[in-house]
């Protein structure tokens, strides 16, 4: 096992746990379907969390060249980013399924935390990425520039309570991340 695989195995476990948490929460909701008041927002939030996890895992393959320049501080940033993704996934869908479950009420309670975790994870991931690129003298800030709007949008979404805006934002981010990587290959 090389340095890259060794370092990212720990972060991959965290992301695997995040996917497991989403799957278990969805399974519990489906089992309690007759007591669930369904709503699209937490389902889209769960789908976006799932997609962000997959995108992060996928992009790690392209970062293999940076593994030798990775410092302990950068590695800590990668772990923090993975943990923030785990928390974002965990907040998307409710864990408790006792009694009646109102998914709209759940999203209303957790919306601010969800979007702030989204913003914090995006910021952490990009800081570590820029730091690592600077460390190996391969800075590609031009690739980041169009995506700089993600942070203020995510923070604003933490405070906007308009359902249509939330739905459009979740669908927009799902589309953005899918189109950014849809045709990429591992080679």
Segments where pLDDT lies below 50 for 5+ residues? none
Shape: globular
Give the overall average pLDDT. 89
Main β-sheet description: 2 strands, parallel
Q: Count up the domains.
A: 1
Secondary-structure content class: mainly alpha
The helix/strand series, from N terminus to C terminus, equals HEHHEHHHH
**Helix content class:** over 70%
How many individual β-strands? 2
Calculate the terminal CA-CA distance, rounded to whole Å.
Answer: 19 Å
C-alpha-based Rg, rounded: 17 Å
Adjacency order of strands in the biggest sheet? 1-2
How many DSSP H or I helices? 7
Percentage of residues in DSSP E strands: under 5%
Strand-helix topology:
Blueprint: H1 3-31, E1 36-37, H2 40-62, H3 72-92, E2 101-102, H4 103-135, H5 141-144, H6 150-157, H7 163-181
Parallel strand pairs: 1-2
Helix pairs in contact: 1-2, 1-3, 2-3, 2-4, 2-7, 3-4, 4-6
Any overview of this molecule?
The longest helix has 33 residues. The radius of gyration is 17 Å and the shape is globular. The protein has a two-stranded parallel sheet. The mean pLDDT is 89. It has one domain. It has 187 residues and is an all-alpha fold. The chain is built from 7 helices and 2 strands.
